[in-house]
Amino acid sequence: MQLKSHFIVLTCLSTTLVACKQKAVTSTTPAPAVATNTDTVLPQAAPLLASATYAGTYTVQDTAVCAFSITITKQASTYRFAMGKTRGQVQVERQGAETYLIFLGLKGADPQDDVEAFWQDSLLLIQNYGNSMNQYTRFEQCDAKYLELVRQRQ
Predict the structure, then answer these.
(1) Could you give the residue ranges of the DSSP H alpha helices within 27-153?
(2) Predicted confidence (pLDDT) per residue in 7-37, tens digit
(3) CA 31, CA 51: separation in Å to the nearest integer?
(4) Among residues 128, 142, 153, which one has the least CA distance to residue 57?
(5) What backbone torsions phi and psi does residue 150 show, to the nearest 5 degrees?
(6) Checking DSSP bridges between strand 123-127 and strand 114-120, what pairing results, if any?
């Protein structure tokens, strides 16, 4: 009699386990998350943003078009630039996935606004002049519409 009752209990348990397993496989409702002590760990910032550095010397590769370079240094939490005798601060602006560097104090030829560059990895891209609808010139001594300045290896 005792053996028969154990058999019945085991049969009920195995049937229940099989039913639970099948329900878990076919269920479309996600199970609620259970909070644990490890849930309090905050995710780390993306390594690209954390490791992005703008410091270095950027030089125009095609010296026939234009011959100049801009040196960017990091001092504490700010960036500074030097181009010839002109020095100033670099303002970093992010617009979505794009990064722009504004050289505060480095004025374009016409109008005399701060020069802005698109930054990507080890390249600065400056649009040197506009068009008939949007006329401006950044560097009069340069003939190219776009100036590519490549960061030199240090």
Answers:
(1) 47-51
(2) 444 444 445 444 444 444 454 555 555 444 4
(3) 37
(4) 153
(5) -105, 135
(6) antiparallel
Between CA 71 and CA 106 the distance in angstroms is 12
**For residues 26-37, b (16+ Cβ closer than 10 Å) or e, as one string?**
eeeeeeeeeeee
Give me the residues paired with residue 120 across strands: 123
Identify the DSSP state of 123: E
Q: Hey, is 51 helix, strand or coil?
A: helix
Of 52, 55, 50, which is closest to residue 70 (Cα–Cα)? 55
| Spatial distance between the Cα atoms of 113 and 146, rounded to a whole number of angstroms | 17
Arithmetic mean of pLDDT over the chain: 76
Per-residue pLDDT tens for 127-149?
988 888 888 889 888 888 999 99
- Nearest CA among 79, 82, 85, 83 for reference residue 99: 79
Residue 125 CA to residue 144 CA, distance in Å, equals 12
For residue 35, give both structure tokens. 């909070």
Token pair in block for residue 76? 């504490």
Distance separating alpha carbons of residues 18 and 118, to the nearest angstrom: 61
* CA nearest neighbour of 71 among 56, 61, 60: 56
DSSP count for the chain of H helices, then E strands: 2, 8
For residue 69, report the phi and psi dihedrals to the nearest 5 degrees: -145, 160
